[in-house]
Amino acid sequence: MSFEKLGLRAELLSAVTGQGYTAPTPIQTRAIPVILKGHDILGSAQTGTGKTAAFALPIVQMLSQHPPAKKKRQARALVLVPTRELAAQVGKAMQDYGRRLSLRATVIYGGININAQIMRLNRRVDIVVATPGRLIDHANRGTLDLSKTNILVLDEADRMLDMGFIDDILDVAAFLPDKRQTLLFSATYPDSIKRLADELLDNPQRIEAAPPNQAADGVSQVVYRVERLRKRELLSLLIKKENWHQVMVFTRTRYGADKLTGQLITDDITAAAIHSSKSQSIRTRTLADFKRGSVRILVATDVAARGLDINGLSRVVNFDMPNIPENYVHRIGRTGRAGEKGVAISLVCDQEQAWLVNIERLLNHKIPVKRLSEFQPKNDHDPDIIAAKRKLKEKTAKKQKQAIAKSSKHPRKPQKSGTKRKPKR
């Protein structure tokens, strides 16, 4: 399959060629023709599979074919995303594709001055890429009119639900016309996504470029078992011994990200942290430094697990294991993108073993364990042994319940008051 056979205009074919793409990815092959026909879509695609172009290209083409009657254009397409980084990334793609067909795209998100965004919206806009909170702020202020927005895209919808944006998404939908085309894309497919699709989509076409809740084929995964207090020591050793460069390391908390960054710098490893408490200017500068290579290790929380497209990112490290299995898929999706190879390394202590089991259950396979004798936990157990102990514990608890139930059916007869039990001889 080639891009020419997908029904795209010559201007967009030129744009695709200019970006070095020679053939469409599976999600692009399946989604673009369906979107061009005006259908709603419920799409499952792993991160790094070309999902942005899968909806950006057909949207730009459809808008160019039906220009608005008024000179002052209202937003006709809206892309809703969970994070500022993803908004910037999707907005750039929309601008690049739309520029060739005289369409304008703008990005709005929180953390920066709203007045500059209002000025851009007042000039002219065809496509808006936004995070939910700031978008609702503009809609309530009247600085953004969504009454003519006939295309809605929910990108990384599962992540938006994880971040608690369900009410915001429904509020945004209330600003849009009832009759519209809605495209929902998600890397994972929990029950909450199914309910959201039932609420917002009209007879959608289901498109799966790959099985949901699975890592990309090009990502090899490995687990190192280590005591919690020695994780930092093991990480520094691996970075130096194997000469790692441009590695993303995930922690569960913002405090943990800042603490680990300071420790790595102490170990003479250039590192920087990126998380929601950082200002947008600092996050943008940190990411640019990391891409340029002046920062060796980027320490991030799950907020950064979506929307960061870094070419050539060879490794991701789970310094802290995620307690939500789907977040593991999102994290390791930062590597092995666009058909490249990548490595996902997880540092797992005994306290995180249950989370690892849940992740393996989601992936439907066990992750290989690599052991270093000097870092072996004192109380280390194989997952199979842990599972066997859990089963034995459950069996014991079941017997105890049965014994209690049996004794309740045959209670001991109460002793008459004033009588004494005869002593046993």
Description:
- By secondary structure, the chain is α/β, with parallel strands linked by helices.
- The chain folds into 2 domains: 3-208, Rossmann fold, CATH 3.40.50.300; 219-375, P-loop containing nucleotide triphosphate hydrolases (Rossmann fold).
- The chain contains 15 helices and 14 strands.
- It has helices spanning 10-18, 26-36, 51-65, 84-99, 114-123, 132-141, 157-162, 166-175, 191-200, 231-241, 254-266, 280-292, 325-332, 353-363, 383-409, and strands spanning 41-44, 77-80, 105-108, 127-130, 151-154, 181-186, 205-208, 219-225, 247-250, 271-274, 297-300, 315-318, 342-348, 369-370.
- Helix 2 (26-36) runs parallel beside helix 3, helix 3 (51-65) packs across helix 4 and helix 6 (132-141) runs parallel beside helix 8 (166-175).
